[in-house]
Here is the input.
Amino acid sequence: MGRQAGGAQGRRGVARPSLNRILLVEDDPDIQTVTSLALGSFGGFDVRVCGSAQEAVASAAQFRPDLILLDVMMPGMDGVDALMALRSIPATAKVPVVFLTARVQPHEVERYRELGSLAVIPKPFEPTALAATIREIWESRGA
Amino acid sequence: MPELSEEQRRQLQQLREAYEAELPEKVTGIANAAAVLRLRDWDPAGVQELHQLVHRLAGSSAIWGFTAVSKAANELEALVLTALEGTPRPRRDLSDAVRRLLEQLQHAVPPSPSRTAATRASHHK
Here is the structure.
């Protein structure tokens, strides 16, 4: 399953913002734990974990993420609705979103792309490779 | 695959072992949710809860490399989704299919180290 890249065009000579803070929106505690380990301990990122879209919206302004990693199948507000909600608040209106999901049928990936996601990382993912994958996605912005 | 330090490998292994130790409890939780659902004639809230439990198990077990568990959970999730989406199917058929898939799931869970040790000890008595 390939990733779908897109996003804003970078200009030659203009420094891109660095990737430090990642907001993870994921309802499963087991996946929260392994993703935090993969990105925080292994990847060196500052990771804030939110168990729901509502929690993510509530903490986004204070955390000010550089990137949002979003599960799709969550109870209550799903990932797509969560993306809309995060787009509606100033703190995250323009923050790149990467979907982390097992729902990766071609029509689903196409929908995520149409919604403006930067990329899609399919589950299951390899914990030891996740941070590198995220960095690669980040670096490919506007490439 | 990026190189991990010894400490990072140890952390990862500890997490995997902790997850493995919890697998029987997770499957029991799913079996209990399915049993309650049968009693409640597959009410939508119960189906939603069962789906959530099975979906989580399917995803997390795949990440930790428990492929047989993940495969069984994926099949069960697909079945529960049909109920969630309102696909017409006799309740009894659905319950029987869930029971069969739950048995597959229970067989897919590897014996925990403590249970294996206990079995070994009882054989030596």
Notes: The CA atoms of residues 43 and 131 of chain A lie 5 Å apart. The beta strands of chain A are 21-25, 46-50, 67-70, 97-101, 119-122. DSSP finds five helices and five strands in chain A.
